[in-house]
Amino acid sequence: MKAPSKSLRAGKTELDDCVSGLSCRKNNTKYSQSEAWEIIFSFFQTSEVFAILHSFPNVYLYLLIMIGDLLHDVLITSLIEWAAFISSLLYVWLAACQNNWCWHFAAISSALYVYLCYVAQLYADTLLQVFYVFMAFVGWINWRKGVTNTRKVVRIHWKYNLFCVAISTVIGLLTGYGLFIYTGNPGAWADGLIFSFSLIATLLLSQKYLENWIYFIVIDLVAIPLFWSRSLKLTALLYLLYTIFAFIGYLNWLKDYKKQTS
Asked: Domain end: 52, 75, 98, which one?
């Protein structure tokens, strides 16, 4: 591995606190400060994509801090969050592929996130995850009806779509206001809106409305900073991946819809 550039060595002391945080125990394995630095630098020094960042030491330093912080949180992430993370990825990927098994993993991940969101004091998301467990069974039943005659992808009428957006906004703001009064946390507003729009998006997904993926893309982008601020870094990363999968799902379903109508 190449030695760090002068600009990186000059800024190394500013990263000491972040990197020393990686000195932790997970599964009885000790990660020393030097090993933590090795992890970070090996990633950046072997990546051609980030080679250009050597010319921008401030940006490079900031990214190193973020990577170090994320690595620290990943190393100490609980097994429950890891299980929720993996089952959630499987759920979204299988849903994008229109595989009925997606609902099994949806039920598992949602049940785990009921606990995680409650501990993080994301009470609207806790209720949302309870709803997800219920909707996993509803979605499985609806999709099973089309086993012999695959349920077709459909489009939502713009009037119905406008109604969904309006009712979700009202419910989200009312929920956010109630949570803000109860907790005093500014993140309650985002929590409330994520809650209401996710309800609608999940209903649309269970009925195979194409536009459900657009809802989820917006929801995921709002959820990323919310979970990051609650120290659920792995879950924030999950929602970033959700955004990518939702985009893929939209393209796959759109292609199928065009085939159906051609």
From this structure: 75
Coil, strand, or helix at residue 187?
A: coil
Measured distance CA(195)–CA(190) in Å, rounded: 8
Is there a contact between 156 and 144 (Cβ–Cβ < 8 Å)?
A: no
The Cα–Cα gap between 10 and 6 comes to 6
pLDDT at residue number 24: 46
Asked whether the CA dihedral 23, 27, 28, 29 is positive or negative, the reply is: negative
Query: What is the spatial distance between Cα 164 and Cα 189, in angstroms, rounded to a whole number?
Result: 18
Q: Chain-wide mean pLDDT for the chain?
A: 77
If asked whether residues 179 and 197 sit together in one domain, one would say yes
The three-state secondary structure class of 178 is helix
Rounded CA gap, 90 and 216, in Å? 16
Domain that holds residue 199: 79-261
Total count of domains within the chain = 2
Whether 65 and 151 map to the same domain: the answer is no
H/E stretch holding 88: helix 79-96
Q: Going along the chain, which residue ranges are E strands?
A: 25-26, 29-30
Q: Are 81 and 32 in contact (CB under 8 A)?
A: no
The answer on 101 and 145 residing in a single domain is yes
Average pLDDT rounded to a whole number, residues 113-125: 87
Q: How far apart are CA 95 and CA 90, in angstroms?
A: 8
**For position 105, what pLDDT does the model report?**
94
| Nearest Cα to Cα of residue 161 among 199, 198, 204, 123 | 204
Instruction: Report the alpha-carbon distance of residue 227 to residue 57 in Å, rounded.
Output: 28
